[in-house]
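ARCHIVE CARD
Drawer: 12
Card no.: 0347
Subject: one protein chain, sequence and derived structure
Cross-reference: see card 0346
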Amino acid sequence: MNMPQPMSNAPESRRFVWRNLDAYLAGKLEPAEHQRFEAILRDCPASREYVSHEREFAELVKRAANQPVEC
C-alpha cells in the first residue's frame, strides 16, 4: 500500500509554497521563484498534491463564477 509522503520538513519550503501559491497558479512568479517552486514540487509529493487540489478548487470557483445564477 502506498502512503503519501509527508510534506517537506523544511518550514521555509512550506511557507514559500503557501506564500506564492496564488502567483504560481496565475503564472506570475519571477523566473527564479518559479524554478524554486517547481523544485519543491518535484521533491515533495505532499506539496504537489496540495497544489493540485488548490488548482482544481480555483478552476471550479472560476467556472462557477462564470455560470448564470439560477434561483
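Annotation on reverse: Residues 46 and 64 are 27 Å apart (CA to CA). The chain has three helices and no strands.
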